[in-house]
Amino acid sequence: MTVTTRALFDMLKRRYPPWKVLSTVAKDNPGFGMVAKDTSGGGLTMDYGVEYSVPTRAATFATAQTNSSRTRNARFQLDFADDYGVVQIEQKLLESGRRGEDALISALTSQTEGILTALKNSLGRAFFGNGSNQIGVVDVTLAAPVAGPVLQLESLDDVVHFDIGQTLVVAASTTAALRAGTLLVSGIDEILGRVTMTGNLNAGIAAIADGDVIFTQGDYVSAADRLAYTGLDGWIPNAVDFAATPTLFGFNRSVNRTGLAGYAFNDTTYPGYSEEEAVQLLARFIGRGGGTLTCAFMSHERLTRLVNAVGSKEEFVKTVPVKNMPKSEAELGYDGIRIRTPSGLVECYADRNCPNGTIYAGDIAQLKMISIGQCPHWITDPGGGSTGRTMESAAAQEMRLTAWPQLAIRRPRSWGRFDWA
Question: CA-CA distance, 104 to 78, in Å (whole number)?
Fold first, then answer.
């Protein structure tokens, strides 16, 4: 008996309903998982008001009336990122009848779990990015010269963004054009933070140099591309990046740097600051500005240091509701610790996607992930309701997953960052 495309899709929907797709992608991604989801996005762009100034007042009625003003909102024209994944099942399995039923289910599960993991990594990484899809920086060393096949990463933690068989491209910066050529990954050393290619680095990309930014092919195409959604690094930039690119979504934020781009501190201005001191500093300034600091995200290494340094802490599990998830399923939750600050108790989480040199902290209630449909979701045929299609280039059926998201921050002054060199 041949399994039809419709039957295959029905099987897929039963095994991976919307709640499971979302919970699988949110698992192990505290930042992405905890932010509120809004599926009402639509159009190529969407106007979004960002508050940065409140009305004036006075102690006398006449003066207040004369000097009356309004709450100022910057109009950001949000666009929606594209993130796709496909599940392909060979036609041979579909036509194998009962003998191939186990193999079909195994292939379906394996392919779907694999692409959901890829989307989980992509969407989680973008939460802390600037929209460029950067996955690492080249560090040329004596042990990893450009004339050899080993690429040393500037940050060892970035090695988790690489997979065998992945095709890479590089540029001098996240605003520069791509250098000519590509590299193909053949091996990974997660301990040393090294990625081995099928050939010498300068054979694949002749002009590759120390400090070049690395991307997966297709994730960065033209100079200054922002094909991923804009994460915290774009919304809450450091001082150097803000000075270079103050405009975001068509609005020049220089009119009110803190009000429209949050607080940014570093260990040059505050040398020797620990993780706890960094969170306390952010809490002090955000609280002084009228905001509330409820959570902080950092790398596993930073949270480990914080746990060891803070004598009085409270460990807890933050549960996040997932729409339509059956009560019989385990709740989606993230482990964290609470520390006391001038703004009250702050929940601190380790996120594998947060850069090791940065802590982001702020009011989680000010964040919203706006998307066209659920993020991610199965693409269906409007006419037949099926998500599958017959491939033209292979004897197989293809099912597609997509995410069209954009992160929005209603009140950026309620967020900040601390960077270590």
Answer: 41
